[in-house]
Every structure is written in C-alpha cells, then in structure tokens.
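Annual report, structural modelling task.

Input specification for the flavin-adenine dinucleotide complex:
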Amino acid sequence: MKSAPFELHEPTTVDEAVSLIESLDDPTILAGGQSLVPMLRFRLANPDVVVDINNIDALDYLEEDDEYLHIGALARHVDVEQSELIADNYGSFADSAPLIADPQIRNRGTVVGSVAQADPKGDWGSVLIAHDGDVVVQGPDGERAIPADEFFLLPYDTTLGENELITEVRVPTPVPNEGSAYHKLKRKTGDYAMAGSGVRLVFEDDGTIERAGIGLTAVDITNARASDAEEHLEGEQPSAELFEEAGELAAAQSNPESDEHGDASYKERMVDVLTQRALADAAERAGFVKRRVSQ
Ligand SMILES: Cc1cc2nc3c(=O)[nH]c(=O)nc-3n(C[C@H](O)[C@H](O)[C@H](O)COP(=O)(O)OP(=O)(O)OC[C@H]3O[C@@H](n4cnc5c(N)ncnc54)[C@H](O)[C@@H]3O)c2cc1C
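The model returned the following structure:
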C-alpha cells in the first residue's frame, strides 16, 4: 500500500524547520523514515503535512567537546557503529549500535529518530538514561535540554512540545575511571530487544563505585531507570556478589509483559543476567577488572 498524499516541506536550516513546524498545522517530522515510512505505507500514520529534515546539513554530526558527546539529529545508527571516537570511549554506544535492527535500517535510521519514537523496545533511550543524558530541542522559545529521565512518558509519547524539533541528544564526556556497556537479548537479527540493560559506572581512585547508571530496555512502558540497583551499587567496592545483587534489584524493579517471545518471569531473569554482564563489562572497561558472571 502507498501512503496517503501529504504536503512535503524540506527546510535546509534549523531555524527554517522550527518556523515551519510552528506555522504548519500538526506537521510530522521525517528523519530516517525507518519507523515513519512503514507507518505511512500501512496508513497507521496519515499526516497532512510532513517536514523532512534530511537537508539540514547542520544536524549531521557526531562530536565531542569538553562537556558532552553530541549526536545530531541526522547522525545515523551506522555513524555510531563506525565511529572511532565511540569505539575508543563510549562502550555502551559501541555495544548498542551494531545490535540495532539490521544493516539497512542502521544505514538510514537516526539515533534521535529512535529516541523521538519512544518505543520502550528502542535501545538508545536506555543508553541515554544510563549516562544521565539529555534530549536537546529547539522551539519557538529557543533551546532547552530535557533530561532523558523526563523525556519518556508512555510508549510513543514524550514531553517534546508540539512545536519543537529535537536537534541532538548528548551525554557527558567520560570522566577518569569510567566504563560503560550494553547487553541485549533478541531472537534474531532485525528484531527489537526482548530485554536490554545499559550500564555506566564511575569509580573513585580506590575502586569504590561513585556513580552507577542503569537503563533498561523493553521491560517497562518506557525505557526505565533501575534506580534501586544504582543505589545499591554506589559507595560499594565492585564484586561478582554485588553485581548479582544489583541484577536482582534491576529485575525486581522491571515490569515486563508476557508475549509470544517469552513470559514476564523469563524476561525478569534476563534483566538480572544482562545487567550483571553489563556491570562486569563496564567495570572492566573502567580498569577495575572483575570476574565475569557466568554466561
Ligand atoms: C524492523 C525494525 C527493527 C528495529 N529494531 C530496532 C532495535 O533493535 N533498536 C532500536 O533502537 N530501534 C529499532 N528500530 C527503530 C529504528 O531505530 C528507527 O531508525 C528509529 O525508530 C526511527 O529513526 P528514524 O530516523 O528512521 O525516524 P523516522 O522514522 O523518520 O521518525 C520516527 C518518529 O520520530 C519523529 N522524529 C524523528 N526525528 C525527529 C526529530 N529530530 N525531532 C522530533 N521528532 C522526530 C518522527 O516524526 C516520527 O514520529 C527498528 C525498526 C524497524 C523497522
């Protein structure tokens, strides 16, 4: 089936896009089209007006400064997958990118589009939560940064204002003694996660865990923070036992639903295991090598 007809706008600057979004009646933004185009073709989305942002070259970046890693709204999953900056310094991002969908979708789909879609099975939201990241948006009143914790409301529903465009997502640049990782269970290439866990750990020089960030995928109504596990880890020395306890706490705080891929108790067990593995990898990458939990 083909999409219903719509009016198409193709701005070339962020200012032009923001003015268009404000002046048009309920426009839909098109980025990589990997979620939107199938919905158009199946007529699950029937917008009258589409604003295609693919010609805004200024949104095509993946860069780091003293404060943040910035991922612009036109950075594709493959850009993260192939970035040396990411490979060298952002373990959780490097782990996630090649696990998303399939190569075709990764070539076109954007990180920001995935966050905007707010599918609880999307991976980037969990990584953003683990890293205490922000969603940066531009609207008629200027720019604002929405903490990832405050961005996701419900499946496919966010706190993005109706006249706002997401220009980038960002996470703090790594500090000394930091490591991160992402583990995900999916049935086969091209599938979304059945469960996933993103972890960021920051250690003090003596090996005490100073900050723990854990974001969970596909096991709640949004990407979700495993705050009980984070609190349990902070102030402690890493050990396999501590990571086991944290995995159990993350599982207990998750709210997966049973479906054709597995029942809720199985997914909770997966949260436990995936979180333990991500914690072990993050600790190792931070330079605090610990015995990996059994695979
Ligand atoms: C078969 C399949 C498997 C997939 N598997 C995974 C997976 O394992 N993990 C995962 O994370 N994702 C997965 N995805 C989703 C994929 O990551 C898409 O790329 C992503 O959901 C949407 O990104 P996009 O750039 O294609 O956005 P689009 O499809 O263009 O847009 C998606 C939505 O976001 C809005 N939007 C896009 N950009 C902006 C912006 N800058 N500001 C405001 N709103 C915006 C659009 O209006 C639309 O509502 C999968 C998709 C498919 C079809």
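Residues 28-36, 38, 53, 73, 100-101, 105, 109-110, 112-114, 116-117, 122-124, 165-166, 190, 192-193 surround flavin-adenine dinucleotide (CB under 6 Å).
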